[in-house]
Structures are given as structure tokens and as C-alpha cells.
Design a protein that fits this description.
Layout: H1 9-16, E1 29-30, E2 38-41, E3 48-51, E4 57-58, E5 61-62, E6 94-96, E7 99-104, H2 113-117, E8 120-122, E9 128-134, E10 147-149, E11 156-161, E12 170-172, E13 179-183, E14 194-196, E15 202-206, E16 228-231
Parallel strand pairs: 7-9, 8-10, 9-11, 10-12, 11-13, 12-14, 13-15, 15-16
Antiparallel strand pairs: 1-2, 2-3, 4-5, 6-7
């Protein structure tokens, strides 16, 4: 695991002046590019709604008028390129608007992600990604753990609940997309899981303060320019 650097409270105050604060995976609000656009997401498995905003994207560069998105090829803190709706990619179990939902349950289930993906889940390009790891060992298939590769320029949320559901999991955030890991920490649900942040907003959230043998790894904020927060995971 890499060295973790947590932002101080004073740093967060400065960041909030220019960035959209993320309060936790599943209840955060991000605004897509476009005049007056607003997008909200809630729930572990991810749901999204958008109103009043149209978005355009060319070559991975986002622009904004009224929504606070990035300009000149630089994405603003807390924002993601709003992907077009289209045919739901095969890797997704369902799609809701711009979100690809991937469901993972225990070994031998109808949603056995170990059998489907091996040791790496790769979120589809051009879509926001929501991965729900629910059930015993849902996203923990080998002793070294597995990894989730988030899509460039888009939101990525991972939710974990169940005995060792996300033990040793690595969430590899995109360099430019908001990213978060939400943990129900009972029964080592996120023990030694790690959130590897990019330079956009990044949050690690636990349902309660985790004891030593239940905890995920401290948030890896190396290189993060935006809000980077541990919430209730550590005393």
C-alpha cells in the first residue's frame, strides 16, 4: 500500500472556496457541464437525475457555462463529463441514464463477479460507473484482493456491504473523475481496502468508526488537487 496523506481541516476550508464539497459516496451532488445543469446521485448502487442542462464533450475536454465545469481541458473539482445515453455496455448489469451499474455478489451467485471479471473490473469508457459489492466476499476473490478501474473523466462510486465484501479491494480512481468508496465496515467488509485517488474530488466513507481489524486503508490523496476526505472511517 502507498503512503497516505490526509488533508488538514484548514486545507479543506481553502478547497471548499473553489471546489464542490463531497460529503460522502451516494449522497454527493455533481453538476455536469452545460448552462444551469445539475446532476445528483444517491444510493450505493447509484442512481442519477439531471435537469436543465445540456452537455458537450470533444476529445475528453469539458467546458461549462453556469454549471461550474472545467475549461481549457481542465476539469473542475467535483465535476465529471456528462456522458451520452446510448446502448448499455455489456459489462453493466443495468444502466440508469448516464450510469453503468455493476452488481457483485458472492461466489456461485448469479452475479459472481469473480467468475465474470477475474481480478479486475474495468468500468466502461464514456459512462459514470457504480459498483455494488453486496454479500460475503462479493468483491474479494483472491488473497491479494482485486481492483476496480474507474473510467476516465467520469464519476466512479463503489459500495461495500457484507462479510469481507471488499477486503483487500483497490479502487483505482481516474485522474480526472470524482471517486468514492462507501463501506459498511462490520465483518471486515472493507478491511485493507484502498481508494487510490486522482486529482478530482475523492471520499472514503464508513457507516461507523471502524476498529483496527475492520478498517479500510487510510485515504490515498497523493496528487489530489480537490476535496479529499475520510468520513467516520478513522477516529
Amino acid at each position: 500500500m502507498t503512503t497516505r496523506v490526509a488533508l488538514t481541516v484548514s486545507s479543506l476550508v481553502v478547497l471548499v472556496a473553489s471546489c464542490h464539497l463531497v460529503t460522502g459516496v451516494g449522497d454527493a451532488t455533481f453538476e455536469p457541464e452545460g448552462a444551469g445543469g445539475a446532476s445528483t446521485s444517491s444510493g450505493m448502487a447509484g442512481s442519477s437525475s439531471s435537469m436543465g442542462g445540456a452537455s458537450t464533450s470533444t476529445g475528453g475536454t469539458s467546458s461549462s457555462s453556469g454549471g461550474g465545469g472545467g475549461t481549457g481541458g481542465t476539469m473542475a473539482c467535483g465535476h465529471a463529463t456528462h456522458p451520452p445515453n446510448g446502448t448499455c455496455p455489456a459489462v453493466c448489469d443495468s444502466c440508469e441514464g448516464s450510469i453503468c451499474n455493476i452488481e457483485c455478489q458472492g461466489s456461485g451467485s448469479a452475479y459472481d463477479c469473480g467468475a465474470r471479471f477475474g481480478n479486475t473490473i474495468i468500468c466502461p469508457a464514456g459512462w459514470d460507473c457504480s459498483v455494488a459489492c453486496q454479500g460475503s466476499d462479493a468483491c474479494h476473490w483472491i488473497s491479494q484482493g482485486i481492483s476496480i478501474a474507474c473510467p476516465a473523466g467520469h464519476r466512479c462510486d463503489v459500495g461495500c456491504a457484507g462479510s469481507s465484501a471488499c477486503r483487500n479491494l483497490d479502487v483505482a480512481c481516474a485522474p480526472d473523475g470524482p471517486c468514492g468508496l462507501d463501506c459498511v465496515v462490520a465483518d471486515a467488509g472493507c478491511r485493507d481496502a484502498e481508494l487510490l485517488c486522482g486529482s478530482n474530488d475523492c471520499t472514503l466513507t464508513c457507516d461507523e468508526v471502524a476498529s483496527m481489524n475492520q478498517r479500510p486503508e487510510p485515504l490515498d490523496c497523493t496528487g489530489s488537487d480537490c476535496v479529499c476526505v475520510d468520513t467516520t472511517c478513522f477516529p
